Amino acid sequence: MKAFIILFLSLSSFYVVAKPYEVGNIPFDLIGKDIDGSEIRISDFKGKVVIVSFWASWCGPCRKELPVLSGIQKNATTEKLQVISINIDENRKVFKKITEILTGTQMKLVSDAQHRIGKKYGVQGIPHMVIINADGKVAAVHIGYGESQLPELINQINEIWHNKPNS
């Protein structure tokens, strides 16, 4: 019995998900790779507000959020704000099909099929959004929100964006 407990504890440590970020934390830099295989890092967007959103195609609220985030990205331009949309737990074939549907968006689309980045960000449910201010610190975290909360999120993003340094 004692050997079983030790084995269980040692194996369970491989599957530990970090605690979700809190306001003021500095997020993990490497986000992953886009469809072209280019690495995406938070530090690539220094001085900009960055929205990192974790989602999956089977998640209804996530599908409703994507066009909203795409619209935010389009209106704010990539000079001031960058949306990074991370598809989790879905294979490369599904991710490629999704990127074809979202052609023309200025959002960065990233695949996290093995949920490695999601674990570092503390993602345990989706949608999961982390808003990073222009100083590179977490300004807000939203987990498991629905369509009715999107207007509130948009207001918060605008507030963070308008309060960025040197704006």
Summarize it:
By secondary structure, the protein is α/β, with parallel strands linked by helices. It is built from 5 helices and 7 strands; from the N terminus they run H-E-E-E-H-E-H-E-H-E-E-H.
Distance between the termini: 62 Å
Shape, per Cα inertia axes: globular
Q: In the residues, how many domains can be counted?
A: 1
The rounded Rg comes to: 17 Å
Can you walk through the features of this model?
By secondary structure, the chain is α/β, with parallel strands linked by helices. It has a single domain, classed as Glutaredoxin (3-Layer(aba) Sandwich), CATH 3.40.30. Helix content is 34%, strand content 23%. The protein has 5 helices and 7 strands, in the order αβββαβαβαββα. The chain has helices spanning 2-12, 60-76, 92-101, 116-120, 150-162; strands at residues 30-34, 39-41, 49-55, 81-88, 108-112, 128-132, 138-143. The chain has a 7-stranded mixed β-sheet. 30% of the residues are buried. The model is unreliable at 2-16 (pLDDT under 50).
List the helices and strands and how they pair.
Blueprint: H1 2-12, E1 30-34, E2 39-41, E3 49-55, H2 60-76, E4 81-88, H3 92-101, E5 108-112, H4 116-120, E6 128-132, E7 138-143, H5 150-162
Parallel strand pairs: 3-4, 4-5
Antiparallel strand pairs: 1-2, 1-5, 3-6, 6-7
